[in-house]
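Exam review. A common question shows you a sequence with its structure tokens and asks you to describe the fold in words. Practice with the pair below. Do the first one on your own.
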Amino acid sequence: MEVRNRQTGCRTGKDENMEEVVGRLMHFSARLNRQVADSQSAEIVAMARIIADAFERGRKLLICGNGGSASDAQHLATELTIRYRSSVNRKALPAIALCADTSALTAGANDLGYDRVFARLVEAYGVAGDVVLGISTSGNSMNVYNALERGRELGLHTLALLGGDGGAVKEVSDLSVTVPYSGAADRVQECHIVVGHVIVDCIERMLGYYGETPLSGNTN
């Protein structure tokens, strides 16, 4: 009996055509990106505007997430503090990945519980008018939920990149972008980093910085 992979639709096992697997996975990921672009562009622009306005007022962006989403948090913070695209010369923008300090994470997890660690760091660094961006592929990461909830209490804007139906984190988000997929974290994470890059691009444009875009650059 032929068995097929539920996600790719391809035959499983040693007889799988790996080039077919690659094509199906990448096309599926592209369709998710297109779906988010078609249905949530307004939310993406609004999120970028909130962050850009915060930067213009001398405020900062705090970002948190777990696992691959922690990597995305650090990735996006670095795009803002160091550089996003070499064709754009601008000042550094204040963004902090709350998941990057292993001493704080381990102390918080040990002393307060892991569900509270990001909330504690929001309390330490956040001031009214700052922005906290939570990233959760399930939408149900309690430490991300608690970080945004604490941010609201302190007067921060709360934004989120989520997956599935948005989960609990959506409830404490002023604005969110939700990737409509819950089969696994991988496809959601791929879309999250694309959305994150687009947000950074929009922020730079909103602040008056312009450079070569992927649409005008060399794709060879």
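Now try the second one, then compare your answer with the model answer below.
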Amino acid sequence: MKAQSAFFIIALVLALALAGFFAFKAYDKPKLSAEDKKILRTHLLENERARLMKDAEKARARRKTEQQRKLEEIRENYERVRAEEIQRAIDKKKVEERRIAGRLAARGGFATLLSLMDHAGITTLKSPGNYTIFAPSDTAFARLSKPRLSELQDPANRDMLKNLLAYHILNGNFLLKKVKGRKAAPNALQGEVLHIDGTAEPVTVEGVKITGSDIEPTNGTVYYLDSVLVPPGILHPPPEPEEE
């Protein structure tokens, strides 16, 4: 009896399996029409186009961000370099202001001397180093006759002007307190000897009174003069007036 029941169950299972198999084989998958395929293809193309456009937009955004980053970097570099240039210019101006030329310009009254120095191409008063200058004031140069001043400013006489100005400059820091009560004869840059009389009151150089001093410049010392020092043979005598 049990054997018959088992056989019956097995037979039933096989029958159901065969029925399912044949039902699956008999199943006819639905087929898409040409219009449906066209619609599906259009839909897929639109999706692909939308995806490509989205990717392109992302790429443009990335490029824009990169360009903005580069522009920002360029701007920051420019501002940094510009700030450094400005700071260097400020530092240079501060250095120049502490040198002899800067101190004379700030004091005022020595425009003629500074102008002639530039005209002669003498940069000693602006340069680093250690110098002493006997600086004639504008009033001192005004005491020269106009023909002589014109002669100094003539480009053809540049060497003569350089010799005249170099006659006012010593190489090194010459302090008058060291010659107080005695005399000294240092050599000017021009080559001639300058006779300094420390026994006079005030001290004189080549007989010209020293009216003041400035020991603050970073490149030397300044002594103010109310007359121009003129070495022999530098300036030609002024022309004689023509006879009528």
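Model answer, second protein: The chain is about 55% helix and 10% strand. Residues 217 and 237 are 36 Å apart (CA to CA). Full marks require stating both points clearly.
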